[in-house]
Amino acid sequence: MPVDPGNLLFLGALGEMPVIGLPGCARSPALNGADWVLERVACGMVPGPTDFAAMGVGGLLKEIPIRPQPREARGS
Hints:
Layout: E1 10-14, E2 17-21, H1 33-42, H2 49-55
Antiparallel strand pairs: 1-2
């Protein structure tokens, strides 16, 4: 998903049932892309490639204090 913080997840199906594989991002206390996918699937709207690309419009999600900041130089 083209956002920062991004999400690694997979979305597939087992017959007619949607299947979502969520890594550690699912534990994040902050809103993230996995939440957007879950909301859509729960409403019966399974997102496709165009939907995922559209979720990245804007590029950044709200930072949370516990997230490391890779853009900052070490020792700063």
